[in-house]
């Protein structure tokens, strides 16, 4: 599933290519993604100019004129591509195509169809129901040790579950939760309310560092993810624990272990993490 670094990479690619472009046509090739598609609302975007691209957690928000916003979630396998209109050839799972001015197409491809496209007419996009309950952004000053401790002391959930809770901090997905916990030497199975302030400081620093590094590398491609140019992310080469079960830890040579926490595969080093 594309996580915050992957969505941020897509956002930057869109910002570079489609700001000020007009939507010339909207082609819809499916009735349903995760939710049924409101075709009338999507078709109403024709002739609207794209004013800005924002990100909230794992959501892309395309700001259009006339107080319209297009909220996109990539789901498990969604890919947003920018291709030249004159060179575009439709392939399987190209579900939505926006033809833009200046010979550009924005194409949404999603084999598993767990993503969604929602048109919002509220002047305040962050009040939309899919965004309203989100917690703080991890790369902002609002995400700090004091904030995190205030949330951790209220729950006995495993620490990995808590930092993946979008109502607390948004966008720290499965890959980066495992990597940040390794970087901060904290076992993913620790009860949240046992984390000390010093450990919380390390964890906040690690989350920010890991996410920043992943963004710099264009995200992580394990299977489906590609950026707007169709290129994979290269942070895969820097993963210390994720996907490395039974391989030697790069720090201490202990075998990396894995278990399932809240239905998500979790990877850790029992010697480096406590």
From TrEMBL:
GO biological process: base-excision repair
Protein name: Formamidopyrimidine-DNA glycosylase
Domain Formamidopyrimidine-DNA glycosylase catalytic: 2-115
Gene: mutM
UniProt-listed Enzyme Commission number(s): 3.2.2.23, 4.2.99.18
GO molecular function term, any single one: zinc ion binding
Organism: Francisella philomiragia
Entries under PROSITE patterns matching the protein: FPG_CAT (PS51068), ZF_FPG_1 (PS01242), ZF_FPG_2 (PS51066)
Cofactor stoichiometry and binding remark: Binds 1 zinc ion per subunit.
Cofactor section: Zn(2+)
Described function: Involved in base excision repair of DNA damaged by oxidation or by mutagenic agents. Acts as DNA glycosylase that recognizes and removes damaged bases. Has a preference for oxidized purines, such as 7,8-dihydro-8-oxoguanine (8-oxoG). Has AP (apurinic/apyrimidinic) lyase activity and introduces nicks in the DNA strand. Cleaves the DNA backbone by beta-delta elimination to generate a single-strand break at the site of the removed base with both 3'- and 5'-phosphates.
Superkingdom, taxonomy of origin: Bacteria
Pfam families: Fapy_DNA_glyco (PF01149), H2TH (PF06831), zf-FPG_IleRS (PF06827)
Subunit architecture: Monomer.
Protein family membership: Belongs to the FPG family.
Keywords: DNA damage, DNA repair, DNA-binding, Glycosidase, Hydrolase, Lyase, Metal-binding, Multifunctional enzyme, Zinc, Zinc-finger
Active site: residue positions: 2 (schiff-base intermediate with dna), 3 (proton donor), 58 (proton donor), 264 (proton donor)
């Amino acid at each position: 599933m594309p996580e915050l670094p992957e969505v941020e990479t897509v956002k930057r690619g869109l910002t570079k290519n489609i700001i000020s472009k007009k939507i010339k046509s909207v082609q819809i090739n499916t009735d349903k993604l995760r939710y049924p598609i409101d075709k009338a609302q999507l078709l109403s975007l024709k002739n609207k100019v794209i004013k800005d691209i924002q990100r909230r957690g794992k959501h892309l928000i395309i700001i259009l004129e006339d107080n319209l916003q297009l909220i996109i979630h990539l789901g498990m396998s969604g890919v947003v591509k920018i291709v030249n209109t004159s060179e575009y050839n439709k392939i399987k799972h190209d579900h939505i195509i926006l033809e833009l001015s200046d010979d550009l197409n924005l194409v949404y491809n999603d084999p598993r169809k767990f993503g969604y496209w929602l048109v919002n007419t509220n002047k305040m996009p962050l009040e939309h129901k899919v965004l309203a309950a989100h917690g703080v952004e991890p790369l902002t000053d609002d995400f700090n040790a004091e904030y995190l401790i205030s949330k951790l002391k209220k729950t006995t959930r495993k620490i990995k579950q808590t930092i993946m809770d979008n109502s607390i901090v948004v966008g720290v997905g499965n890959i980066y939760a495992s990597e940040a916990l390794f970087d901060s030497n904290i076992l993913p199975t620790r009860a949240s309310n046992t984390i000390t302030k010093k450990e919380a400081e390390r964890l906040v620093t690690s989350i920010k560092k890991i996410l920043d590094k992943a963004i710099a590398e264009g995200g992580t491609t394990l299977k489906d993810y590609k950026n707007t140019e169709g290129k994979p992310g290269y942070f895969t080469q820097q993963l210390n624990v994720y996907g490395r079960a039974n391989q030697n830890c790069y720090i201490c040579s202990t075998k990396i272990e894995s278990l399932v926490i809240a239905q998500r595969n979790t990877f850790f080093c029992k010697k480096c993490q406590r």
